[in-house]
Amino acid sequence: MEVEDSTTVDHAAAIEFDSSIPSGEFIYADKMDMQRMGKKQEFVRNFRTFSSIAFTSCVMGTWEILLTANTQGLVAGGSAGLFWSLVWAYTGQTFVILSLAEMASIAPTAGGQYHWVSEFAPRGCQRILSYTSGWLSTLAWQSIVAVDSFLIGEVILGMITINHESFTPQRWQATLLIIATVLGLALFNFFAGKRLAVAENIFVAFHLLAFLPVIVTLLVMTPEKQSARAVFTQFTDNGAGWNSMGLTVMVGQVSSIFVVLGSDSAAHMGKTSCVE
Length: 276
Known about the structure:
4 strands
């Protein structure tokens, strides 16, 4: 579980502020937030507002994830099920994020949910609920790394297969690519973590600029296009095998939920970000 990265200090103790920093600047405000929570700022704040937004955008990977992990939604519900589950997933997640944003403004700590549970839960069950929330979050983060690495490996194999028709992908090749992806991510965090903010600014540029070319290419190259009625109103079970269409769509919405995951990412960079 994530360990608190700031040292707890006496709430009554005053933190010495640099008198050369004007009171209106965001660094001063960040120190004041830390003091109010009884924490001492220790991490270097290298994220700004734009890089925090870029970080969250890249973690979510909205349209990239939807293009590479839509199988469950298309099998269980079809295109209509996938579209409308996206609509209600985004609608529901909006209210969740508004609540998390309010808590983050009160307690801007990298711990995120487990810290907020500890702060706002009833006193009698703070520890158990915070402990449970922390471990669930940790397992979710580890699962996301595994799933994203799997998708990267599958995409690489898919690109090789498209360009070399004689190539037959093997499962062990996918496994090696997944391991290589995890190692690459780990090495970046070990040796280039301080450059993460700059890297996110570059990544988000590709994230935004690649959207239209990819979508237009898919639209132009698709040999047969479905009617609007089929896309938005015809819910289908393409092999899921559930008894009712409603249950089928509910199962298939896992693809849409995957797209909105990570929307709280900026909160976990709370002690390395400056609010401008």
